[in-house]
Design brief:
The protein has 205 residues and is α+β, with helices and mostly antiparallel strands. The protein is 18% helix and 39% strand. The chain has helices at 9-26, 37-43, 61-66, 71-76; strands at 47-51, 54-59, 81-90, 95-100, 106-111, 121-126, 132-135, 145-157, 160-167, 171-176, 186-191, 197-200. It has a five-stranded antiparallel sheet. Strands 7-11-8-9-10 form a five-stranded antiparallel sheet, with no helix packed on it.
């Protein structure tokens, strides 16, 4: 239960892979309890997510991280964008969802493999790491969702820059490497329909 909680970051990073290697070498089964998502993803072959004392989701860590079972799970797992929407068109390739923009205008976003019926509500979950931040005159790949925006805030991060964007929707994107964009700069936030994980409304009950 939280065996690394009192250790500094460098020691945790050194001990975690060593512990995992020892467990696998000896064939030892272990339950590792942590509030640190990075530890859970590093150490676990199977992840169980506890919320309010209930086991709400289990599975391989990458699957749980990519497809949280509820809005509450998505928030706990750090999904940056969560947009309520309604399915307005459905075909085998993608579902079109109507989402309310910042000014109240309706936006249409496409999500693949949603399983949501026409007219039903859901929450669209999108991670900042899955957003491509293009120049204002950039050309996104065909079929991607496109949101013109302005850079509102830039924050340094270990992997690069966390960029807060304002447009029809407020959103956060991750920029890895390179120089940070300037505040006020026009950009295009683009992401494929497959980057959106759709959480049907009923799953968060």
């Amino acid at each position: 239960d939280e065996p690394f909680a009192a250790l500094d970051a460098a020691t945790r990073q050194a001990l975690a892979p060593a512990l995992l290697a020892e467990l696998r070498a000896t064939g030892t089964a272990a339950i590792f309890v942590t509030h640190d998502l990075a530890e859970a993803l590093t150490l676990d072959d199977r992840l169980g997510l506890l919320l309010d004392g209930r086991l709400v989701q289990t599975g391989p860590p990458a699957d749980v991280l990519a497809r949280p079972a509820s809005v509450a799970a998505a928030r706990f797992l750090g999904v940056e964008q969560l947009w309520p929407g309604r399915a307005v068109a459905v075909d085998p390739e993608a579902t079109a969802f109507e989402v309310a923009g910042r000014d109240g205008a309706a936006l249409i976003l496409a999500a693949s493999g949603s399983g949501v019926a026409l007219g039903h509500h859901a929450t669209l979950a999108l991670r900042a790491a899955n957003i491509a931040l293009l120049p204002g005159d950039g050309a996104p790949p065909e079929g991607w969702n496109v949101l013109p925006c302005r850079v509102a805030e830039v924050t340094p991060a270990p992997w690069g820059w966390r960029v807060h964007l304002c447009g029809a929707l407020a959103l956060d994107a991750h920029l890895t490497g390179g120089s940070p964009p300037a505040i006020g700069e026009r950009r295009i936030a683009a992401f494929p329909p497959s980057a959106i994980h759709v959480i049907p409304e009923a799953t968060d009950a």
